[in-house]
Amino acid sequence: MAYGNELSRAQADNSPVEANHLSNIRQITEGFTRAGEGYFSPDGQTIVYQAISPGYPFYQIYSQRLADGALPHRISTGHGRTTCSYFSPDGSQILFASSHLDPNIRATELTALEQQEEDRRTGRRRRYQWDFDPYMELFVADREGRKLARLTETPGYDAECAYSPDGTEIVFCSDRDGDPDLYIMDVDGTNIRQLTNEPGYDGGPFFSPDGNWIIYRTDRARPDYLQIHAIRADGQHDIALTNIDGVNWAPYWHPAQPYIIWTGADHSDPAKQPNYDLWMLAYEKDGDQLQGVGNPIRVTNHPAADVLPVFSPDGKQLMWTSKRTPNRSSQLWLADFHLPDSP
């Protein structure tokens, strides 16, 4: 794969909406067919993300320093589907999900490559679909992608994982009981306990900065219409933070102030193509309760899709996946971030 000496600094036009919260918007990945779902290292100097390289059909995990001219470094094995990478709180390890132990991995790869070639030949553009690969398991590696250790071994999909702030626990999504629910385990893969147990999909979880709450996405109210929920880390007080007027997913906590950010789109009109943008909401906690405050705040309104937002550890930057690239490929973007004056 070829990269230029410097990363693209393509600037997006700041609309009045985006200028309220974002400045210095720039693209930070290139050379990939697609790249996205990036997360910061604890010191904010490095990111880890998933990307598809030309010639291979599935996402692999890469790390990359946030410095001009810094090149990606592959962390995963180079085989199978991978997703949901995340730094440990001390920055020494990278957690991710991978299906590279699929016993039929070569056949799986060949089938996907043949489909890609057929789509290229016919010009077909397939609707995005996430595969709940039954061979997806959780792994942890050092920052060079070495010392790979397997954390889960239960048949079924295990992915969508993140560390607790103190580094002692991991929250993740698994369909080991028949449908995707949330689970928590100790950092070494032991002491697994189920957090949610409702019909439908529960996934994409993240611990709150204080470790007491977990925010996630679920379609239990209406199949395929994801909404944002929060639940205490002990499994109590499951609270809906968005309604079913649209699709709302990929929530993430601000590290220092009472705000959450997520991806949302209006799906109410089947005749219109929904466009995903970033939204933010203030919240307040009162004992064992957590609730939203005020109305959602729109962060982006670009005509291209903006998804999967995450804050830097100091809350001063926002990174997200966007198709605002010239060729409309998904890549990672970074901006300086400005909070509202008050919740």
Largest β sheet strand count, sense and barrel closure: 4 strands, antiparallel
Q: What is the terminal-to-terminal distance?
A: 45 Å
Query: How much helix is in the residues?
Result: under 10%
Helix count from the secondary structure assignment = 2
Strands ordered across the widest β-sheet: 1-24-23-22
Return Rg in Å: 19 Å
What is the arithmetic mean of pLDDT? 92
The beta-strand count equals 24
Q: What order do the helices and strands follow?
A: HEEEEEEEHEEEEEEEEEEEEEEEEE
Q: Low-confidence runs (pLDDT<50, min 5 residues)?
A: 1-14
Bulk shape: globular
- Structural class by helix and strand composition: mainly beta
Core attributes:
343 residues; four-stranded antiparallel beta sheet; 6% helix
